[in-house]
Amino acid sequence: MNDKTEELRDIFTDVTDGEETVTESQENTRGSLERDERTTEERLESVVTQMRERYEFETSLSDDELISVAKAFYEGDSDSEIASDLGVDEDDIFEARMSLHLVSENDADEVDLAAIRDREEDDAVLADEYDVGEAQIRRYRRVAAAEDESRAANDRYRDEFDSVLGDSELSEQMTTDVREDGLEDATEGMETDVEF
């Protein structure tokens, strides 16, 4: 060692209180986001149970059937398809979805729910005004009530369903996209018109 190097070494040793090294061993730590260790079924069952305790469900469907309704809703199945799969009436599926706060864009796309939400007129008057049947007005009012109930809970339960069922679809889509992008990158520039 030359004099300069030895002098720097002495300064280093003084500054670090005689330690020969200042590096610290690194730990393998997990990310800051906590992962729910429960299965998808357990998480869905928890949401349905909480909702049953908080609200009076007007459905005869069991918790397992309600979970099936939620899954099918997120898969894009219609009420008639879900009803057919479960062997129940389509109106039962609609009521189950409303009880679970699973309102789709198509449930009231023909009417402004805010306009009928607080109207006190009976179904016949509103049906005549909107040129629809009374059953349709009752349906719209049920959708409005489900939205109000969901908002009163800060959309907590709908967010839970989104988290459980929406994330699984999103992660599947992201995995597929990554696979496709990786394959595209790997095959870029390769000749594909090869004759043997």
Describe this structure in words.
There is one protein chain. Helix 2 (40-54) crosses helix 3, helix 2 (40-54) packs antiparallel against helix 9 and helix 7 packs across helix 8. This protein is elongated. The protein is mainly alpha-helical and 196 residues long. It has helices spanning 3-15, 40-54, 63-74, 79-86, 90-99, 113-117, 123-130, 134-152, 156-187. The N and C termini lie far apart (66 Å). The chain has a domain at 40-167. It has nine helices and no strands.
Radius of gyration: 30 Å
- Rough outline: elongated
* Structural class by SSE content: mainly alpha
- Return the string of H and E elements: HHHHHHHHH
Tally of separate helices = 9
Distance between the termini: 66 Å
Strand content: under 5%
Q: Which range best describes the helical content: under 10%, 10-25%, 25-40%, 40-55%, 55-70% or over 70%?
A: 55-70%
Largest sheet: none
The chain-level mean pLDDT equals 80
Low-confidence stretches: 29-34, 169-179
Number of strands: 0
